[in-house]
Fold this protein.
Amino acid sequence: MNPTFSNWSGLITSKPEKILSIANIDQAKEAVNYAQEKDLRIRTVGATHSHSPLFTNDGGMIITTDELIGPITVDEEKQTVTIPAGIKLKMATRELWENGFSFTNQGDVDVQSIAGLIATGVHGTGITHPSISSHVKDVSILTAGNTRIRASDNYETLEAARLNLGVLGIVLDATFSVTPRFYLHEHNWQENIEDLVARVDALVAENDHFEFFWNVDGVETAYAKTLNPHEGPPDPLPELKGQYVDRAHIVFPSERTMKHTEMEYSVPFESGLECFQQIRTLIRKGTHNILWPVEYRTVAPDNGWISPARDRKTVTISVHQGITEPHEPFFREAEQIFLAYDGRPHWGKVHYLDREQLSGIYGDGWEKFWDVQRKLDPKGVFVNEYMQSLQPR
Ligand SMILES: Cc1cc2nc3c(=O)[nH]c(=O)nc-3n(C[C@H](O)[C@H](O)[C@H](O)COP(=O)(O)OP(=O)(O)OC[C@H]3O[C@@H](n4cnc5c(N)ncnc54)[C@H](O)[C@@H]3O)c2cc1C
């Protein structure tokens, strides 16, 4: 019987025929040969932190990349870093710091693999900060033809690779623009949600990074956080409540150990607060018993073909649910609200959209993305059933 392979939350499972770990390009090539001989579809995984069925692969091959690691290479003059695909962000940012650099922004956690981050367009918060995919300068990919390509050799390939959903081939390493290392000053506090909402736009404008969480706790408290560059050095600032200074890569991530699932939509910045209030009203109705928080963040516009922040200033709103509670009825209702605000789903989180809806959202970008995919992988070796269901016919 085939083994079960699940994502981090344990809610997305499949039964691949083969699970294989790769540590280098030769092993990657062997895996591709094996899969083609046996007519198995391939999905490659990183830290399995995505919440959508991106890598489900019943009867196919799952390639794990925890061993696809090695030294990072910093180009000080160009201010870029090349990182093996399987390295986790935590490790990469530490090494980067030792070399004098930081990522300009990071998301909530730093446990993801480098390839997983760019496959799903991971973002943090900050209205001047686009997603990590915008910082991608090159991606090295082993394609279905068992050839290693450099995405930067061709404009279209690079555009597809910077947010690639894992369907172009096995990502071996990626090159990012980085910035001289810096310290961050974190300030977190609690505040009545209505008071906070009244000054959210100012907080977004005045701080490099701002976000808040709200959950239905009966007292209407919001948990807000700002991060701003600081000259350092690390300082616990014991005299100031909820504040400290440390290295950027230490301050950006938080601990998120409680297993959950999540839906996140990007909406135009101007509608962010109104959309949030609609989601809040839905939760307060109490039909769905949602005790998990709603998260509100911002992302700068970017021009990625299938980036949720494509061409617009963005607010991202995330809803969560514990893994032992039902989430689908709530998520489906929340999704209707997000869509009414022209929302675009996060690629690594739950959504229920079909190919027509995604094509409607991304238009020519969706077509261009899949044109590159078909060119690199005409037989769809890297396209699982789920991705087939979304691929344009
Ligand atoms: C607790 C938690 C916190 C999160 N916080 C944030 C956040 O702050 N911001 C945000 O935007 N998202 C966030 N996410 C979502 C998550 O970061 C993304 O879904 C990300 O893709 C996960 O990276 P991963 O390494 O786990 O990738 P996986 O989930 O393993 O895979 C994701 C995709 O990457 C592809 N892939 C992985 N490795 C390779 C490879 N070597 N070659 C080709 N394709 C590959 C897979 O095929 C798949 O399509 C969070 C998720 C969790 C569970």
